[in-house]
Amino acid sequence: MSTALDILKHYYGYESFREPQSEIIQSVLDGNDTLALLPTGGGKSICFQVPALMKEGICIVVSPLIALMKDQVFQLKKRDIKAAAIFTGLSYSEIDKILDNAQFGYYKFLYVSPERLKTDIFIERFKRMNVSLIAVDEAHCISQWGYDFRKSYLEIAALRGIHPHVPILALTASATEKVQKDIAEKLKFKSTYTVFKKSFLRENLRFVVRNEMAKYPKIVEIIQKLKGSGIVYARSRIQTKEVAEFLFKHHINADFYHAGLTTKERSAKQDAWIQNKTSVMVCTNAFGMGIDKPDVRFVIHLDVPDSLEAYYQEAGRAGRDGKLAYAVLLYNEQEIEYLNEKINQQFPTIDTIKHIYNALCNHFAIPVESGYMHTYNFDFMHFCNLFKLDKIKTSYALKILEQQGYIQLNESVLLPSRAYIYCSNLDVYKFEIAHSKLSPLIKMLLRTYGGIFNNYTKISEAVMARQLKISQEEVENQLQFLHKNKVLSYIPANDKPTIMLLTERLHDSNLYIDATYFQHRKKIIADQILSMCAYVEQDKVCRQAFICSYFGETSKMQCMQCDVCITNKKKLEIDEDFILAKRCILDKLSAQNWIAMEIILKQEASYDKQLHQQVIRFLLDEIQIEINEKNELRKII
Fold first, then answer.
1. SS3 of 390, please?
2. Angle, helix 120-127 to helix 92-103, in steps of 10 degrees
3. 574 in helix, strand or coil?
């Protein structure tokens, strides 16, 4: 059997693992339930893909992000690894075909959105699959203490009863200690489970917070100084366009991105930015997830995010190449007030939630006790205008309905046209003889799309129309005719946002919103907002030390490069006690001999010990002294 390193080199082209990928992989190979906390861009997918390629059977990957699933399946297929994904928007027959192939060992990886786990069609096939590993991406979603709780994630634990000996690998970029424990409990980890954490400290990332009223000119100033590729996060779609145009007027090559654009537009903008044809992307938080661009030199937030978890994840998209990068957050006092007021906005009354649920079902003409697992194209703005609903309240009401497991919202993701010929070669030939007008199209399908007899295959009506020298509309009509006559299954392309009912439509009296849970979530959100505001407004504690402490790291190491550290350092450099202590320590040290740190501190006991420690840290940062593994100091000439 190939080693993990062999697999890494062969399929991914890397010569070595990043820390702690190798240890996580070994834990999975040893059959342990494993929790891995790796920062954004830390190579989480490697941690389950490599061991899965070393083991017999299929790896089930649970992920809530359709775009990310599609991208990872695409990347695996490029490496000649068989993979598929099941998510909202696929037809029943497509799902049925994918699960058939998964059951009979055709795929090595099957990506599944969490709401699919409880469906009978999935459970019955899952029972008969040879499963080697269950990987849970964005694992913080399973915790009610997490910042993005999804009730559908609770279904994952039920899989354990079907395949009790299959290990689970849970992956997340940001989880507090409380969330980590909750993940292990909700996934029913065995008592022998292992946890791997990469420090939340980002040594190459310089965190800066600025109280700024005139934000747009400040962004221009920052970008002109830093140069290179960057991201500017804005709260609203309108603002993304406004800021991008402002930057462009100031000779900065910027573009904008949000979930309201068509899939084609978003894809083109994203590609231009990745290829450095566009320098700066101004976007909502819909942008960045799963994008592997290592040379991002700065991430600027125009508004204060709702939580430190979200902020850390978004800021962490800068400097993945290990070179110096900046995470800048601009705020003003009004925003802090707005953020505190937003706590009440995020939790509309239960009557409001029920009213919006009924409006949604009426909008799609769904009778009571119908609509289970049905998907509908959803235009949020049209829906709100049609029913005269407040957009902010509606947005949060839909979020609560999603968290409670009643619906699933999906931003627009391009699902290209697909076709699958399910009758025999002979039957196709007979149909072609009987319908000679369709013969050119049928021949083209058979010639161009080799796998169309085995699986749903992506097709392009535009390409076929050009080659057949007929209109695209005519191609679509012919495909629909073949579909109606059961020669093939044809599913036209769709790139609209969707909403799916995860239960049949419920009557008002049966739509249960847990009031205790409601208050519990409200307190969690309030605590997260308070922590975020504290991070922004405080100016005493190193930014990175504050973040690390929030996530449970106890190290008191200062980064010495954030705005707080730099300000404190400047204050120290003009402090008389600091200057005197610095002179005394340098006088005691030699360039030839190492001297134990405790001797330096003991000899100068008349001075404050904490001050001396600050001086020593300062001198180390300024490369005036060095320290060895024995905690001994020496002067650098």
1. coil
2. 10
3. coil
What does the DSSP 8-state code read for residue 11?
I
Tell me the range of 359-363, 425-429, 628-632 where mean pLDDT is highest: 359-363
**CA angle, residues 532, 535, 537, in degrees to nearest 5:** 105
Rounded Cα–Cα distance for residues 540 and 528 (Å): 20
- For residue 176, how far is the Cα from the chain centroid? 17
Taking each continuous run of H as one helix and of E as one strand, the counts in the chain are: 26, 22
Distance CA(512)–CA(401), nearest Å, equals 10
Bridge-based pairing state of the strands 83-86 and 109-112: parallel
Closest CA to 375 of 71, 91, 81: 91
Q: Is 532 exposed, middle or buried (0-12, 13-18, 19+ CB in 10 A)?
A: buried
Concatenated DSSP letters of 80-120: T--EEEE-TT--HHHHHHHHHHHHTT--SEEEE-GGGGGSH
Which amino acid appears at position 41 of this protein? G
Residues 85 and 234 placed together within one structural domain of the fold = no
Let me know if residue 379 belongs to a domain. Answer: yes
pLDDT in tens, 140-150: 999 888 777 88
Task: Say how far apart CA 582 and CA 484 lie, in whole Å.
Answer: 85
Query: SS3 of 208, please?
Result: strand
For residue 69, the number of C-alpha atoms closer than 13 Å in the C-beta half-sphere is: 26
Query: How far apart are alpha carbons 460 and 491 in whole angstroms?
Result: 11
**DSSP string across 54-84:** HSSSEEEEE-S-HHHHHHHHHHHHHTT--EE
For residue 475, what pLDDT is reported?
94
Same domain, yes or no: 43 and 77: yes
Around Cβ 473, how many Cβ atoms within 10 Å?
Answer: 10
Amino acid 68 reads L
Q: How many domains does the chain have?
A: 5
Is 496:410 a contact under the CB 8 Å cutoff? no
Q: What is the 3-state secondary structure (H, E, C) of 233-301?
A: ECCCHHHHHHHHHHHHHCCCCEEEECCCCCHHHHHHHHHHHHCCCCCEEEECCCCCCCCCCCCEEEEEE
pLDDT at 1 over 60: no
CA-to-CA distance for 315 and 173, rounded, in angstroms?
A: 12
How would you write 114-179 as a 3-class SS string? HHHHHCHHHHHHHHCCCEEEEEECCHHHHCCCCCCCCHHHHHHHHHHHHCCCCCEEEEECCCCHHH
Domain with 209 in it: 205-331
Domain assignment present for residue 533? The answer is no
DSSP state of 10: I
Whether residues 34 and 73 fall in one domain: yes
| Diameter over CA atoms, the chain | 103
Q: Taking the complete model, does pTM exceed 0.70, yes or no? A: yes
What is the amino acid identity at position 90?
L
DSSP string, 428-444: HHHHHHH-GGGHHHHHH
The Cα 616–Cα 628 span in angstroms is: 13
Q: Which amino acid is present at 438? A: L
- Cα–Cα distances in angstroms (integers) from residue 254 to residues 279, 311, 323, 581, in the given order: 6, 22, 22, 49
The pLDDT value recorded for residue 608 is 66
Residue 125: which CATH number? 3.40.50.300
CA distance 167 to 258: 37
User: For the chain, how many residues are written?
Assistant: 637
